[in-house]
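Posting for a labmate who doesn't have an account.
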Amino acid sequence: MQEKAVLYERQGKIGMIKFNRPHRLNAINRQLAEGLNEALIWAKNEEEVGVVILTGEGRAFCSGQDLKESAAGQDFLTWVKEAEGLQDNERNMLSLGKPIIAAVRGYALGGGCEFAMGCDIRIAAEDAKFGFPETGVGLTVTGAGTKLLSQLVGLGKAKEIVLTGEFIDAKEAWRLGLVNKVVPGERLLDEALEMARKIGERSPLAIKLSRIAIDQGLSASFEEILELEANHLLVCIGAQNQKEFIDKRLAAMKKD
């Protein structure tokens, strides 16, 4: 029986999604792309889950397209379906409604780098390497990577990374703002879990609305974002479950 290309489990309020093709450095094939979408939908529908961690089994996060399978012969329609599947991955990540933390070790290349950038927060092990090798094999970036990379590192640096195909290490990725934190490899999952728990302690509604405002603020005018923030505040104040959360937090603060 073939093992699943993507694994999903819940640890309390945290959903864990793991790429599970370590023998291929978690390279992307149809099964992995479809499995990621299924896991994201599952995590979205689990009410108990407030935060999701995305990582990879073995030595790599995700090394990009599995060119070994592609080289075996894919017709044009198969390429179209694969591109659509990768773009659905990004859509589902961005519309999840819950924070996603990427825990990256080893290679995060091409589509794998896009998966990491589609997350809200990226924590990298010291051995992590990021990049887009597509232009070297006659391909182009597919899953909104050109936009996400430009937002994170700036237009000029994004063009340099994509056009040269050069990889950047974890330290440089942190300096550029591509990752939030660099940690020793043995601490990677612990650090991701710690951050997930910290986020999970806060109001789910406030987290969801704040995530929306930050993302939409990238393309909204100041007046549009001010109106959105005001509406979000009123939603929070009017929500009964939010009131209960605030009351509990205030009571805890008084005890401290």
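Reply:
Got it, the structure tokens are right above this. The mean pLDDT is 91.
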